[in-house]
Amino acid sequence: xxxxxxxxxxxxxxxxxxxxxxxxxxxxxxxxxxxxxxxxxxxxxxxxxxxxxxxxxxxxxxxxxxxxxxxxxxxxxxxxxxxxxxxxxxxxxxxxxxxxxxxxxxxxxxxxxxxxxxxxxxxxxxxxxxxxxxxxxxxxxxxxxxxxxxxxxxxxxxxxxxxxxxxxxxxxxxxxxxxxxxxxxxxxxxxxxxxxxxxxxxxxxxxxxxxxxxxxxxxxxxxxxxxxxxxxxxxxxxxxxxxxxxxxxxxxxxxxxxxxxxxxxxxxxxxxxxxxxxxxxxxxxxxxxxxxxxxxxxxxxxxxxxxxxxxxxxxxxxxxxxxxxxxxxxxxxxxxxxxxxxxxxxxxxxxxxxxxxxxxxxxxxxxxxxxxxx
Length: 374
Ligand SMILES: *[C@@H]1O[C@H](CO)[C@@H](O)[C@H](O)[C@H]1NC(C)=O
Ligand SMILES: *[C@@H]1O[C@H](CO)[C@@H](O)[C@H](O)[C@H]1NC(C)=O
Hints:
Elements: H1 2-30, H2 43-62, H3 66-71, H4 80-88, H5 99-105, H6 118-126, H7 173-179, H8 187-190, H9 205-214, E1 221-225, H10 231-238, E2 242-246, H11 254-260, E3 264-266, E4 281-286, H12 296-309, E5 310-324, H13 325-337, E6 342-350, H14 354-359, E7 361-369
Helix pairs in contact: 1-2, 5-6
């Protein structure tokens, strides 16, 4: 027991140290280069520190050693699997900030059917509670799935019977396709994506292969960050390149669609470390999901994680990243520059839709090559 406690404390201290280090790093990058005058600590950092302290308090309070836990009268309304899990996995910091949701998620009957709550799981993941506690229940599956699944990643249609539609407002793929062709569910419409050059922002895949070939760099493995229904991975599959797609559902069955196309969906949010080992992939693409909506510090971590998984000589493709023009110049351009990658392509253009005009936004399409050695 003493050993477990000691280990927990050690892990806790390691976590605190890491967080403080990253806060230190953030605060040091946020300061303007005027060392002698001490800068006031920005409010959001104070807020982060406060959250961190609250989390630590929570962790130390909520993880007594097993013997004291049993000595105390445990509240009967806490799901027993949640108690069990928190003893097995004492540190899962972000989950502790949303005890109500975790509590709801862990309220189920072990060894029977799980509640229909994939939306609840996603809500937790989006709040940084990842990995989620594991559960011992059986996830529901569609009652009458078809076994004739498409082998082609661009089938004329996807089988509706292989999706649980209960949580979605549309109840079929054709409904989703008809709603908005840009959602990526109208597959005949998706076939032409990534293949043509309409403006300098485009990088058709044949051209990408030419660039890689000319640089003596082979493309075999990739990660598409925020890849929606997986059309980039689908096109790359036809070139015999394996691409995994991180995608969140956000009210539409993106993960289901990727899988029904015979591609690998990874249900991971943008703020999460990619579940891929260091230096192993040839290409990382950041699509529409990655743009100015992401706080600059979160984007910095995302880019450094992309760097982590890329091999030397691999490519980072920012596909139509958009931000305010002034921010691209002052914030995002320098941030991307921190990677020290070779600019193979760097194209910007005004974003001419109504939102873009209103906010003075621009697009950036960049293909960057990671240096072979630092
Ligand atoms: C992909 O692999 C298949 C089977 O080996 C081959 O027939 C096809 O030509 C390859 N496609 C490309 C674009 O290299
Ligand atoms: C926006 O309009 C300008 C001027 O017509 C054009 O040069 C630019 O390419 C357009 N941007 C996009 C993204 O189409």
